[in-house]
Specification:
The protein contains no helices and 14 strands. It is mainly beta. It has a single domain (4-197), classed as Immunoglobulin-like (Sandwich). A 4-stranded antiparallel beta sheet has the order 5-6-12-9, with no helix packed on it. Strands 7, 8, 10 and 11 form a 4-stranded mixed beta sheet that branches. Strand 13 (182-186) and strand 14 (192-197) form a beta hairpin. The two termini are 26 Å apart.
């Protein structure tokens, strides 16, 4: 079973790019790895195939779908298949309609947390992508509303780039809900992996 891959640029990156997973030419999130590409918003400078204006260190977290307890910390990973759309109000092109949050279906957790969890999200597919490996069209991230103990709402978010590309197909949004707090995670060998705070 393939995990959810959450990828984020590390501190110190100086350009507008964002790691996008999977790479549109090899959609291969598998049990042993994944591909990623630096995606940039429209009009942010050309990216040549196989290159970027600078390299980028990324952090990632891969979790199998389902509910997990790690050293007493509850975590749940899942996917929401959506084409619900949000964007900046000042960049609304004629005819494009936002989906009101009240009409967006809830994503329900299998596990009920004792308080709202921290929620990490990443789009896992590139079903609407027409621009990579140059500038991403449409530029999509994830919008989230109402993270509760047992549910949340997620949508695709176009920021202020709605004139560049459109959303015709559903995308899979991967999400990882983690119990809030300061935690220590041990690897399978019992060695300390990382202190982490959510």
């Amino acid at each position: 079973m393939a995990p959810l891959a959450r990828v984020h640029q590390s501190i110190g990156a100086t350009h507008l790019g964002s790691p996008r997973v999977p790479c549109p030419y090899r959609q291969d999130i598998t049990a042993i790895g994944f591909s990623a590409i630096i995606a940039k918003p429209p009009k942010s400078g050309k990216v040549e195939p196989g290159q970027s204006d600078e390299s980028m260190w990324v952090s990632y977290l891969a979790v199998l779908p389902g509910v997990h307890e790690l050293n007493g910390v509850w975590m749940e990973a899942g996917r929401t298949n959506t084409k619900s759309l949000k964007f900046g109000k000042k960049c609304k092109p004629g005819g494009l309609k936002q989906d009101p949050w009240g009409e967006i279906e809830e994503t329900r957790f299998e596990h009920t947390f004792t308080r709202p969890p921290a929620l990490l999200t990443t789009i896992q597919t590139v079903n609407n992508e027409k621009g990579l490996p140059s500038n991403s069209r449409p530029w999509l991230t994830v919008a989230v509303q109402r993270v509760n103990e047992d549910s949340t709402k997620v949508a695709l978010e176009m920021s202020e780039t709605t004139e560049y590309g459109k959303v015709d197909e559903r995308e899979k949004v991967g999400w990882i809900a983690i119990e809030q707090g300061i935690h220590t995670l041990l690897g399978s060998t019992g060695a300390l992996v990382r202190n982490w705070k959510v």
